[in-house]
Specification:
Layout: H1 4-12, H2 24-30, E1 50-65, E2 69-70, E3 79-80, E4 83-96, H3 103-116, E5 120-126, H4 134-138, H5 155-163, E6 168-178, E7 185-194, H6 201-206, E8 210-218, H7 231-241, E9 243-246, H8 263-275, E10 281-286, H9 293-313, E11 321-327, H10 338-344, E12 346-351
Parallel strand pairs: 10-11
Antiparallel strand pairs: 1-4, 2-3, 4-8, 5-6, 6-7, 7-8, 9-12, 10-12
Helix pairs in contact: 7-8
């Protein structure tokens, strides 16, 4: 693979441009989808395109611009004027479009397809309206965090991913969303036409092809992988903070009956209270902010009472526990996202003050 200095030296010595013509091996990689990659059902792909690279995260965070960039391309202070930081299931897919197509055509097809599925535009820009530094901030070989390189990609595929937007014209970008507030699906589409670059035969293979980056963020609550707190975990948290948030107690939607899969956590709560016979606690029910305040207060109180009854049935003295309702008034995270709502739905054990 050639870099900028070597590529320039070849031209200065008078070699024909064919010295860095499309490499058959590179072209063969470009014309095949990355192993294991697939189109999003929300966007599909532009006809004749292939997936150069793709990354998927079951739950992660991504920051997407929702405003133009400010600052010149090589300005150290360049930045997007505004961004959205989103969490959920994230899929980033990098396409190479067929030769002879414009950014306008390829980009427009994606936007039209999304609008047909009910997506609305949050922000859109093209060419100068995006700002001179937009393309470098959005995707550059100098910042691996912006790149989409498939896991296990060979040298050619990795280099194609790295250099896709190395030297481009006619950049276009749209951020679109669909769905109810707090549970939106976002799709960002960035497209630009290659005009060569500093990667020698890799760049030559990409010449006149439109690169497309499609980023899909689907709402998904963070999975609670560690939900059953041991008796020691409960004690450590209460000793440290005076309370502990418990997520291993499960209830049916809008109901207060404890589900059978809560038993492992109940067993650990019983073990902890038995080891600490002098401890008195409040058992506090918490909800997210969906629904009316009065309803959530009532539901959280009923759930707290259900937990106390289960612990009493297991041998814990009722006088050591006082059920309380907090509803949505003491959140641990923003209720504006599904993952925040999941974090707020919990039961807490709170140590009572001495003498209570």
């Amino acid at each position: 693979m050639f870099r900028a200095v070597l590529f320039s030296t070849i031209l200065c010595f008078g070699f024909a441009a064919s010295a860095v013509a499309s490499d058959p091996e590179v072209l063969a990689v470009l014309q095949k989808d990355a192993p294991g990659a697939a189109d999003s059902v929300l966007t599909g792909r532009y006809e004749g395109s292939n997936i150069v690279g793709q990354t998927k995260k079951a739950f992660d965070e991504i920051t997407l611009p929702n405003a133009p960039a400010e600052g010149e391309e090589f300005d150290q202070a360049k930045k997007f004027k505004s961004t959205l930081t989103l969490q959920g299931r994230i899929t980033r897919t990098l396409y190479g479009a067929p030769e002879g197509r414009s950014s306008l055509e390829v980009f427009g097809n994606y936007v039209d397809a999304l609008k047909a599925k009910g997506f609305v535009t949050v922000f859109e820009c093209a060419k100068q309206s995006c700002g001179p530094s937009f393309k470098m901030l959005k995707y550059t070989w100098q910042d691996k965090a912006t790149q989409v390189v498939s896991q296990g990609a060979d040298q050619y595929r990795a280099s194609l991913s790295e250099s896709m937007f190395d030297s481009v014209i006619d950049p276009r970008y749209a951020l679109m969303k669909q769905g109810d507030a707090g549970a939106e699906t976002y799709v960002a589409v960035f497209a630009a036409q290659n005009q060569g670059g500093t990667f020698g035969n890799i760049s030559e293979t990409l010449l006149n092809r439109v690169g497309v980056l499609v980023e899909v963020v689907e709402p998904k609550a963070r999975e609670q992988k560690i939900v059953t707190l041991s008796a020691d975990d409960l004690g450590a948290a209460i000793n440290d903070a005076g309370r502990v948030a418990i997520y291993g107690l499960y209830f049916d939607y809008d109901k207060a009956a404890i589900k059978p899969e809560s038993q492992p956590q109940l067993d650990q709560m019983v073990a902890y209270l038995q080891k600490n016979p002098e401890l008195k606690v409040y058992v506090v029910g918490h909800t997210d902010n969906k629904g009316a305040l009065d309803y959530n207060m009532k539901l959280s109180g009923e759930r707290a009472i259900a937990v106390v009854k289960a612990l009493v049935a297991a041998g814990i003295d009722k006088s050591r526990m006082v059920p309380k309702a907090a509803g949505p008034i003491a959140p641990l995270a923003s209720n504006r996202t599904p993952e925040g709502q999941a974090k707020n739905r919990r039961v807490e054990l709170v140590e009572q003050f001495s003498g209570q």
